[in-house]
Amino acid sequence: MDEPKVTGTKPKMSSTRMILLILAFLSTLAVIALIAVAVTQNQPLPENIKYGIVLDAGSSHTNLYVYEWPAEKENDTGVVKQVEVCKVEGPGISGYSHAPEKAGPSLEQCLQQAKEVIPSAQHKETPVYLGATAGMRLLRLQNESAADKVLSSVGNTLRSAPFNFQGARIITGQEEGAYGWITINYLLGNFKQSGWKKLLHSLKSLSETSGALDLGGASTQITFVSKELTSESPENQLYFRLYGKDYQVYTHSFLCYGKDQALQQKLARDLQTVENSLLPDPCFHKGYERTINISDFFKNPCTSEKKMAMSSLKTTGK
Ligand SMILES: *[C@@H]1O[C@H](CO)[C@@H](O)[C@H](O)[C@H]1NC(C)=O
Ligand SMILES: *[C@@H]1O[C@H](CO)[C@@H](O)[C@H](O)[C@H]1NC(C)=O
Ligand SMILES: *[C@@H]1O[C@H](CO)[C@@H](O)[C@H](O)[C@H]1NC(C)=O
């Protein structure tokens, strides 16, 4: 009569062992799978990288930048690295004023490049911004509806890319000055000063930060730390708190004083005294000629004050 008891416990023991064996086998499989994933991805598992895309739409051309940074901020500060730069073919977006619908598609090729650099699983969460500068500020002064159409074309293209669209707009001259100043001082390491360097600076009464002069195509910015509490206009005064320190910064953006627009202004002034419709230009190679449509030339807000009655003009090298 004892026999059924014995045979009854035996299968119970072996089924527990079986479950343990199966569990051990499954967890071994799981470890192998994890290692395989880690090896094929060729990177340690906990690494978590974020990406961001910025399009810098200048007056003469547009650049697309891809940045990456670790998701876990190190000591409360994200260390950002530029991993890709793509120069958009053709003119700056303000150059599409006569065909605004073509401004957006001109960005496609660089967006494609960004898609290849950023892992596709992260496309949806990757923010993309476009900031336009003085070329678009001038177009807005000259023809606001054309500027709106260019921005909406660019916005449509960015919105239809697989990224997280954050906006496409014309930034102010103050923002442009501020970003330039922060960038150069970040790159020079001026925000994170060691105790000794800080002491040396205070003894020599040296400035801890550098001023920034940014010569663009259509505007130029000057930005520096100012001790004076008043400036000609409150919008030229900026306040930042960076790495726990306060900065009071003066900034001004001079529209029409970028390299290209300064030359246009000089040409407009030379035209006031031109004898016939031929103007020698000392910057041209000998024999080189260029024909300018005067009515188009004086539509530019940087030259329109110096308008004059001529229909076209040739500029030549001597
Ligand atoms: C973060 O802080 C730790 C300890 O203070 C330091 O060893 C490390 O270098 C810091 N990392 C960075 C990126 O500054
Ligand atoms: C302004 O731009 C729009 C769109 O490109 C164009 O249709 C219109 O003729 C322009 N106006 C002027 C005054 O140039
Ligand atoms: C200059 O451009 C305008 C359009 O902006 C055009 O109507 C005019 O015919 C052009 N003039 C010459 C001489 O090509």
From TrEMBL:
One of its GO terms (biological process) is nucleoside diphosphate catabolic process. Belongs to the GDA1/CD39 NTPase family. Homodimer; disulfide-linked. It is a multi-pass membrane protein. Keywords: ATP-binding, Calcium, Disulfide bond, Glycoprotein, Hydrolase, Magnesium, Membrane, Nucleotide-binding, Transmembrane, Transmembrane helix. It catalyses: IDP + H2O = IMP + phosphate + H(+); UDP + H2O = UMP + phosphate + H(+); ATP + 2 H2O = AMP + 2 phosphate + 2 H(+); ADP + H2O = AMP + phosphate + H(+). GO terms for molecular function: apyrase activity; ATP binding; GDP phosphatase activity; ribonucleoside triphosphate phosphatase activity; UDP phosphatase activity. PANTHER family: ADENOSINE/GUANOSINE DIPHOSPHATASE (PTHR11782), ECTONUCLEOSIDE TRIPHOSPHATE DIPHOSPHOHYDROLASE 1 (PTHR11782:SF32). It is found in: Membrane, Caveola; Membrane. Its cofactor is Ca(2+); Mg(2+). ATP binds at residues 217-221. The active site is at 176 (proton acceptor). It comes from the Eukaryota. This is Ectonucleoside triphosphate diphosphohydrolase 1. Catalyzes the hydrolysis of both di- and triphosphate nucleotides (NDPs and NTPs) and hydrolyze NTPs to nucleotide monophosphates (NMPs) in two distinct successive phosphate-releasing steps, with NDPs as intermediates and participates in the regulation of extracellular levels of nucleotides. By hydrolyzing proinflammatory ATP and platelet-activating ADP to AMP, it blocks platelet aggregation and supports blood flow. One of its GO terms (cellular component) is caveola. It comes from Taeniopygia guttata. Its EC number is 3.6.1.5.
